[in-house]
Design a protein that fits this description.
Keywords: Cell cycle, Cell division, Chromosome partition, Cytoplasm. The protein is built from nine helices and six strands. By secondary structure, the protein is of the alpha+beta class. The strands form two sheets. It has a four-stranded antiparallel sheet. Strands 1-2 form a two-stranded antiparallel ribbon.
């Protein structure tokens, strides 16, 4: 039996309003009765709230209510100043985002300087990047990729929404002069690396200690 569309929309609205974090279609399906057309309900709810002070937006494949972008200035005094990433961290994060899965050696090759253990530690601690697996090459280096938290932080629905270099600079996501080796591949073409193995079950090394090693001198840029 098909659930009443208006009732479905109201149920989704109630769940998203009360949720502490964004919810996926699958999360909503666990709560709603059988017969609910959740995708249509989300689409209807998005139209209902379009143009209002609160809007329904998709981040990292999940849905949440948030203040309309043009009204963000009203919240300025109520929000803490976000922690600004260092130039080295911005460069490293940009390289991981556009070249994932990527190893530390590949990050260094693009940046042209040695990657400090501290820079990668910061990005890992903030949850913006994660250790994906190990490359099937000598030494089996660890590969890095971005996380859902990265998409949520920058308001991206998926990696296909990654901006071009000029847009990144304008938005303050990329404050650097790109090195010659940096290119911007098509984010939609990103897929799992066939030459990558997942981390071993139970393998939970500390950030740099096991994977990155002790690097002397740190970042030189």
């Amino acid at each position: 039996m098909t659930l009443d569309p208006i009732f479905t929309e109201r149920c989704i609205e109630a769940l998203l309003f009360a949720a502490a974090e964004p919810l996926s279609v699958q999360d909503l399906a666990k709560r709603l009765p059988d017969g609910a057309d959740i995708k249509q309900g989300v689409a209807d709810l998005r139209l209902t709230w379009a143009g209002r002070g609160i809007e329904l937006v998709e981040v990292a494949g999940r849905w949440r209510f948030q203040t309309a972008a043009d009204l963000a200035f009203l919240m300025t005094e109520e929000r803490e100043e976000p922690r600004r990433l260092s130039k080295a961290a911005q460069e490293t994060l940009a390289i991981v985002a556009y070249h994932q899965p990527v190893t530390r050696a590949e990050i260094e090759a693009v940046r042209g300087v040695q990657a400090s253990r501290g820079t990668l530690d910061v990005l890992l601690e903030l949850g913006l990047i994660r250790m994906r697996g190990r490359r099937r090459t000598p030494g089996r280096p660890v590969t890095f990729g971005t996380t859902d938290a990265f998409l949520e932080h920058y308001g991206l629905a998926n990696l296909g929404d990654l901006p071009g270099v000029a847009e990144m600079k304008a938005a303050g996501l990329l404050d650097l002069n790109l090195p010659p080796g940096f290119s911007v591949p098509d984010p939609l073409a990103m897929r799992d690396d066939e030459n990558e193995d997942p981390l071993d079950e139970g393998e939970t090394p500390e950030f740099a200690q096991d994977f990155l090693g002790e690097l002397e001198g740190g970042d030189k840029a």
